[in-house]
C-alpha cells in the first residue's frame, strides 16, 4: 500500500467534505495498493473512509498472498458481494462512487442504502493521480528514455521496404530488445497519405521516395507508459512538406514553452494552435494538443481549448500538434511528454526534432 497516496486522497476527500468513497478502477486501485487486479465482470471495490478505515471487496477467484495494508472482504460467486460490502460502510450520508463501477453494483448498493446520496468521486481520485510523486516521475523518465532509444533504432527501418504492418511488428521486436514486452497503445507507423490520417490504422502500404512517415510509439515500463511521435522523410523532402514540418515543430516548441505552473491547460493548446492558425493551417490541426499520461497512456486531464484547469507541479502530459493535408499526402505530428516543474517543465523526450531525411540504402 502507498500510504502517502492514501493520505493525499483522504486529504482531498476532507476538502470536498466527502466522508467515504468506493473506488473500482483497477488502475486507481493499483496506484493506491500496488497490485493490479482485473476482476472482469465481478465486483472489485476499494472502500475508503476519511478516518483511515480501508477495505477491499474481492472475489475468491483472485487470491492475494501478500499483505496489502488493507482488510479484505472476500466473497464467492454464490454470495452477494455488495451486501457483504454494505456491512462495512459507515453511516455518513454522502458516498463517492468512481465512474468505472458497473451500474449493476451501484444499483444494488442503492437498494441497500436508498437514503444515501451518491456522487461522482472520480474527480478526487483523478486529481490525486494527476500529480506524480517522486517515484512516478523517475519511472516516467526511465520509460521515456527507453522510448527514445527505441525510436532511434526504429527510424532507419523506414527505408527498408517494410509495409506499415511489418514496420509495426519490427517496432515491437525493438521494444523487446530493450526489455519492454508490451506497447502502451497500438503504434501508428504511417507512410505518405496514411500519415495525413491522424489515427490511421496500419495496413500493407509501403513507403516511397519523398513520403513523410509518422511514427507514434509508446511502451510500458514498470507499469508506466511512454508516448512520443516523430515524423521523418524517405530519401528526400519537398519544399511544401518542409514548410509544414517547420510549422509543426515551432507549434510544438510554443506549446512546451506554455507548459508551466500557473498557466491553464488551455493555454498550452492555444500556444500551439494559434501559431498553426496564424500560418493558415488551423483547420488541418484536427485534434486536441495533448493528454495526461502515467499508469495509462490517456489519463484524465487533456490539453484542449476547453480545459481551463490550472497546471500544477508534478503533472505529466503530451504536447503533440499536427497538420494533416490528406489531398496532398502530407501529414506531420511531433509529440513530446513534459513534466511540470517549479519554473516550467522538463521535456522527457530527447530524440531530435530537427527535420530528418532518412537516406535510401
From TrEMBL:
UniProt-listed Pfam families: Creatinase_N (PF01321), Peptidase_M24 (PF00557)
Any coiled-coil regions, as ranges: none
Ranges where the Peptidase M24 domain occurs: 139-342
Transmembrane segments: none
Signal peptide: none
Highest taxon listed in the record's lineage: Bacteria
InterPro entries: Creatin/AminoP/Spt16_N (IPR029149), Creatinase/aminopeptidase-like (IPR036005), Creatinase_N (IPR000587), Pept_M24 (IPR000994), Peptidase_M24B (IPR050659)
UniProt domain Creatinase N-terminal: residue ranges: 5-131
SUPFAM superfamilies (alphabetical): Creatinase/aminopeptidase, Creatinase/prolidase N-terminal domain
Protein name: Creatinase
Organism: Peptoniphilus harei ACS-146-V-Sch2b
Amino acid at each position: 500500500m502507498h500510504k502517502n497516496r492514501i493520505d493525499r486522497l483522504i486529504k482531498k476527500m476532507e476538502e470536498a467534505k466527502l466522508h467515504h468513497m468506493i473506488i473500482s478502477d483497477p488502475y486507481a486501485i493499483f496506484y493506491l495498493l500496488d497490485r493490479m487486479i482485473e476482476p472482469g465482470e465481478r465486483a472489485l471495490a476499494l472502500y475508503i473512509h476519511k478516518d483511515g478505515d480501508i477495505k477491499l471487496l474481492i472475489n475468491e477467484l483472485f487470491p492475494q498472498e501478500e499483505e496489502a495494508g488493507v482488510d479484505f472482504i472476500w466473497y464467492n460467486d454464490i454470495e452477494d458481494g455488495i451486501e457483504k460490502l454494505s456491512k462495512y460502510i459507515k453511516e455518513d450520508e454522502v458516498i463517492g462512487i468512481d465512474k468505472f463501477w458497473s451500474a449493476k453494483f451501484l444499483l444494488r448498493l442503492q437498494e441497500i442504502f436508498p437514503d444515501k446520496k451518491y456522487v461522482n468521486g472520480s474527480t478526487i481520485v483523478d486529481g490525486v493521480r494527476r500529480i506524480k510523486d517522486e517515484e512516478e516521475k523517475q519511472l516516467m523518465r526511465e520509460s521515456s528514455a527507453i522510448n527514445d532509444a527505441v525510436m532511434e533504432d526504429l527510424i532507419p527501418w523506414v527505408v527498408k521496404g517494410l509495409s506499415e504492418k511489418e514496420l509495426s511488428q519490427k517496432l515491437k521486436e525493438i521494444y523487446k530488445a530493450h526489455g519492454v514486452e508490451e506497447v502502451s497503445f497500438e503504434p501508428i507507423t504511417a507512410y505518405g497519405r496514411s500519415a495525413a490520417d491522424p489515427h490511421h490504422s496500419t495496413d500493407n502500404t509501403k513507403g516511397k521516395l519523398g513520403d513523410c512517415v509518422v511514427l507514434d510509439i509508446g511502451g510500458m515500463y514498470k507499469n508506466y507508459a511512454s508516448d512520443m511521435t516523430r515524423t521523418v522523410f524517405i530519401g528526400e523532402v519537398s519544399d511544401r512538406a518542409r514548410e509544414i514540418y517547420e510549422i509543426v515543430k515551432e507549434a510544438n516548441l510554443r506549446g512546451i514553452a506554455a507548459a508551466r505552473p500557473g498557466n491553464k491547460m488551455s493555454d498550452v493548446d492555444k500556444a500551439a494552435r494559434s501559431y498553426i492558425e496564424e500560418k493558415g493551417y488551423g483547420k488541418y490541426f484536427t485534434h486536441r494538443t495533448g493528454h495526461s499520461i502515467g499508469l495509462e497512456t490517456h489519463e484524465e486531464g487533456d490539453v484542449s481549448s476547453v480545459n481551463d484547469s490550472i497546471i500544477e507541479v508534478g503533472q505529466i502530459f503530451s504536447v503533440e500538434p499536427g497538420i494533416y493535408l490528406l489531398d496532398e499526402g502530407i501529414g506531420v505530428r511531433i509529440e513530446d511528454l513534459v513534466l511540470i516543474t517549479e519554473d516550467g517543465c522538463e521535456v522527457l523526450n530527447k530524440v531530435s526534432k530537427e527535420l530528418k531525411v532518412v537516406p535510401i540504402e
